[in-house]
Predict the 3D structure of the following.
Amino acid sequence: MDSTYCTNSENLIINQMVGVTSENTSFFRCHAILSNERAETFKWLFDQYINIMGTEYYPSVVVTDKDPAIMSVIGDFNYSFYHLICRWHLITNVKSTAASRLGNMDKAEEAGEQMKLVIFSDLKQQNSVITGQIMYFIQDAHLHKEQKHLILFQKI
């Protein structure tokens, strides 16, 4: 989920929700033209998406740029999805903050590289934990009872 600014004649915000298939192909789920990025606007957007798409196409993960309004909507309401912060936005924000505070683009780039090291340092350890969680999610959410028993039998 991301918003684009000042790209149309009315200077309205264009918000996009993008989905990703199991084959890592992206597709558009929803576009919305918004007048602002306040929490009540994002609540309305989530509610409209759910009303139109129904629970069959309910997202299981939402990735955002840590916008406070979106964060408050996700925190205040019982939407049953995981919320992740976009790594690209996180690294970009570190660079821009470092550039404004240090006044030096080389130092800002270095800060961005250091942030990448922090983000990816425990990736191998995290992957082993996450892989188990992902397999459990796939089994729980997408397999029929008979298939779950078959997987359990194969593990023994």
User: Anything to note?
Assistant: The chain has six helices and five strands. The chain has three domains: 1-85, 87-121, 124-156.
